[in-house]
Write a structure and sequence with these properties.
The complex is a heterotrimer of chains A (about 375), B (about 230) and C (about 220). Helices cover about 30% and strands about 20% of the residues of chain A. The chains are: A alpha/beta (about 375), B mainly alpha (about 230), C mainly alpha (about 220). At the B-C interface, α2, α3, α6, α7 and α8 of B face α3, α4, α5, α7 and α8 of C.
């Protein structure tokens, strides 16, 4: 949950940026099936727009209409105001990165040449294309030693990273990602997601991302478009808004259980009031600590880092707190973590209070159960769904 | 020669009994090698599926055997099995059949999904029961596809044996050539194709009957060749 | 063994219009020419059918027909009808028999390429011809080569049989040896033909190793 409230990133004046506009787009197959029905939405420059929905909702079809892998039968798709139907498909596609579920790497080409595919197509000099490919491999977190290998020698997660590097090779302003992380195991998936967010913070691409996994949508999306079967837009909103205020029962059900808890991820934890009087250094006398009125105290070391909770009634008559066994604690980073992390920290402490630390792990104070209660009540007021 | 029609129907009528004899001879010489080939290929294929180290060299040897022209093999066999005997023609056909069937058995067993195998193990099948009751039935479509290729090729390959004096319907080709008379040649070609087609059809029906759960179409490909 | 020594040890076997070098060259000529012609027809056709998906029925039919048609009968009939004046009557059945394996394997090779791979190739902006040439052909190459190898072996074998209708080549020794009951001649010819077939087999193995990307062949070994 790295990037929570950067919210809508400032659309940089970068000339590379592209906005994608769906204007009443419909895809009807000759047999009468309607895959996408009157879709209108915008994928703003430099943001990740996620299409999410159950199978048969037309999310992949919608994505593939952007680079004309499929042509719409009605309406228009505009790239910065230019109808994609007016651009020759191969030319259009060379300016749009494309990542698919199985990576689709060319088995007969080495990794470095796979990444350099589009630069080669664009007529780049071989050496320059390869240098660019090497740079990208490093950028997506791959060992440059893998460059000389063939795809079958790589793990699924590694192949998927190569797929992302390949899509970025010619530095296209737009990236289309069709369930790119669905085929890898959850741990690898999480790391690929984090990697994508890290890359996006550097690159500011206009990304359209398709997934059937609502958690992935909420984690990655600046804006999430929930589609229903038959290819109709059910709701388009930022993740926090989606969780707080689902448009209808379909969206509510699709968001699934724990929606309330998950929404707390989007509420900053830095508004919580801290108590600084519950912190005691390990060098303090046990006897004096016993004199306070508080049932639980956080013991910190000389650097101010938390050691754990001690209960007043368990304290001995003599010696320092350093000799007292401390109970485990939960902590959250103030200024970075959300209300959800703070609540989680409180639930991990026997005292029911959460320890707030700064970026370097030093205790800033304690958020009490009562304060969390009040914060949860404020959060509940914000939710209307 | 210009006036000679492609087919003289009266010749067929007059020689019908002899033609039927040749058909019977062709059927025997084509099918016996396929049956023997299958009987040998089953255990070898099983071994190949179990032990990878066995499979690669076995397929290598079979590829070499398969690439030998049949006429050359007939010639080399003559001192051992005799001129114009059925054995001379059938022995190489056994090897050709094996060359198709061993990979078919291995591929067939490889087509058993791993989850099916695992669940059979988990339910307590002994290895032998598992083989007979689960793996072989699932392998049947692929094995039968190989059997179709082997059978059709075998039927048409028998005719080359005519050059060493025993070739079933192939005799008609020699006869027609020596007398510069096309009718027997045409009759021979048509009958070989019909015979091959009939054998193929029977195997397709057998597959429908043996594996009602698999569609015949999916197994129909994977054929490789029929050599001269 | 004695027969082989008798045949190969005789200096007469190595010279003249009936000598081994001449017969060998003839055999290579017929086989090579028919293989080349078959390749020129079947590879483009197979690529086209595999790429577009049109005409797949033709492939299935030709594969079945090729297996069922008796080569000796076909050869004898065509030569009987067309006469032995030119090389064409012999080439026709040879080419006809070499086309199906190339066609079938090329088609299967192209058609069997992972759809995701095609999708990725088009998605990155490759044009139809580029997808075929840069992706489908290299990935299908093992099967295309298998088809060519099968056809080559087929052609070498059928060219042997063709000696029966008066064609030169190594088959002459076999047919003449049988006709005149000179067994050493027949066995010598059989051994030469077998050696040629094995050489062809080996050559294609080598070709496979040189032409096919290790990324493709390595992947297949693992499966």
């Amino acid at each position: 949950m790295g990037r929570l409230w950067q919210g809508g990133r400032a659309p940089a004046g970068d000339q590379g940026l592209r906005m994608i506009t769906f204007d009443d787009v419909t895809k009807r197959y000759p047999d009468g099936t309607v895959a996408v029905d009157g879709l209108s939405l915008q994928a703003p420059s430099g943001e990740i727009t996620v299409f999410v929905g159950p199978s048969g909702c037309g999310k992949t079809t919608s994505l593939r209409m952007i680079n004309r892998m499929i042509d719409a039968t009605g309406g228009r798709i505009l790239l910065d105001g230019v109808d994609v139907r007016t651009i020759d498909p191969p030319t259009l596609r060379r300016g749009i990165g494309y990542v698919i579920q199985q990576a689709g790497l060319f088995p007969h080409r080495k990794i470095v040449d796979n990444v350099a595919t589009v630069p080669y197509l664009l007529g780049w000099d071989r050496r320059k294309a390869r240098a660019r490919a090497m740079e990208l491999l490093e950028r997506v977190g791959l060992d440059p030693k893998l460059a000389g290998r063939y795809p079958f020698q790589l793990s699924g997660g590694q192949q998927q990273r190569v797929g992302v590097a390949r899509a970025l090779a010619a530095d296209p302003p737009v990236l289309l990602m069709d369930e790119p992380f669905s085929a890898v195991d959850p741990i690898v998936r999480a790391s690929l997601q984090d990697e994508l967010l890290r890359l996006q913070a550097e690159l500011n691409k206009t990304i359209v991302f398709v997934t059937h996994d609502i958690d992935e949508a909420i984690k990655l999306g600046d804006r999430v478009a929930v589609l229903r079967v038959g290819g109709r837009l059910a709701q388009l909103a930022a993740p926090a808004e989606l969780l707080a205020d689902p448009a209808d029962d379909f969206v509510r059900e699709f968001l699934g259980r724990d929606r309330g808890i998950r929404r707390l991820s989007f509420i900053p934890g830095d508004g919580l009031r801290l108590r600084t009087d519950l912190t005691v250094p390990a060098s303090a006398e046990a006897a004096s600590a016993r004199g306070t009125a508080e049932p639980w105290l956080v013991v910190v070391d000389a650097d101010g880092r938390p050691l754990g909770w001690v209960a007043r009634e368990d304290l001995p008559d003599s010696g320092t707190l350093a000799g007292v066994p401390a109970a485990p604690y939960g902590a959250f980073v103030r200024g970075r973590d959300s209300l959800r992390s703070a609540l989680d920290a409180a639930l991990l402490s026997p005292s029911g209070n959460a320890v707030a630390v700064d970026g370097s792990g030093r205790v800033e104070g304690v958020v009490t159960r009562q304060e969390l209660d009040a914060a949860l009540a404020r959060a509940a007021e914000g939710a209307r769904g | 020669m210009a006036e000679e029609p492609l087919v003289r129907w009266d010749w067929i009528g007059r020689n019908w009994p002899e033609i039927l004899e040749l058909v019977a001879d062709n059927v025997v010489m084509a099918l016996v090698p396929v049956v023997v080939g299958l009987l040998v290929a089953l255990p070898l294929g099983l071994a190949g599926a179990r032990w990878r180290w066995f499979y690669q060299p076995a397929v290598g040897v079979m590829n070499v055997v398969y690439s030998l022209p049949s006429l050359a093999v007939f010639i080399v066999l003559i001192p051992i099995t005799g001129l114009a005997t059925r054995t001379t023609v059938m022995v190489p056909l056994v090897f050709y059949a094996m060359a198709v069937l061993i990979p078919a058995v291995v591929d067939g067993l490889a087509s058993v999904p791993d989850h099916v195998r695992q669940s059979a193990v988990a339910m307590g099948f002994t290895p032998l029961r598992r083989l007979l009751a689960v793996e072989l039935p699932i392998a049947v479509p692929v094995v039968l596809a190989g059997l179709r290729v082997a059978t059709v090729s075998s039927v048409s390959l028998v005719s080359v044996g005519a050059l060493v004096g025993r070739g079933g319907l192939g005799y008609l080709f020699i006869d027609g050539w020596q007398r510069q008379f096309p009718t027997p040649i045409v009759v021979g070609i048509v009958l070989v194709v019909l015979l091959a087609g009939a054998a193929d059809l029977l195997l397709v029906l057998a597959q429908r009957w043996l594996t009602p759960w698999a569609s015949a179409r999916t197994a129909a490909r994977s054929g490789r060749r029929g050599a001269a | 063994m004695n027969w082989l020594i008798e045949f190969f040890g005789d200096p007469a076997s190595w010279s003249g219009p009936d000598g081994i070098p001449v017969r060998f060259a003839e055999h290579l000529e017929f086989a090579g020419l028919s293989l080349l012609l078959a390749m020129l027809v079947a590879v483009p056709l197979g690529l086209w059918i595999g790429h577009t998906g049109r005409g797949a029925l033709l492939v299935v039919l030709s594969a079945n027909a090729a297996r069922a048609l008796p080569t000796l009968g076909l050869l004898v009939l065509i030569v009987l009808l067309m006469g032995v004046g030119t090389i064409a009557p012999v080439l026709i059945p040879l080419v006809a028999l070499a086309v199906p394996p190339i066609l079938v394997n090329t088609y299967e090779g192209v058609r069997g390429v992972d759809p995701d791979l095609r999708d990725a190739a088009y998605g990155m902006g490759l044009r139809g011809g580029q997808v075929l040439g840069r992706v489908l052909v290299p990935v299908a190459l093992p099967l295309i080569l298998l088809g060519l190898r099968t056809a080559a072996i087929q052609v070498v074998a059928t060219a042997t049989v063709a000696a029966y209708v008066g064609l030169g080549g190594l088959g002459r020794y076999i047919i003449d040896g049988l006709a005149t009951q000179r067994y050493p001649l027949a066995v010598g010819g059989a051994v030469l033909v077998a050696l040629l077939a094995l050489t062809v087999q080996g050559l294609f193995g080598l070709l496979q190793r040189v032409l096919v990307s290790p990324g493709v062949s390595g992947r297949q070994k693992i499966r």
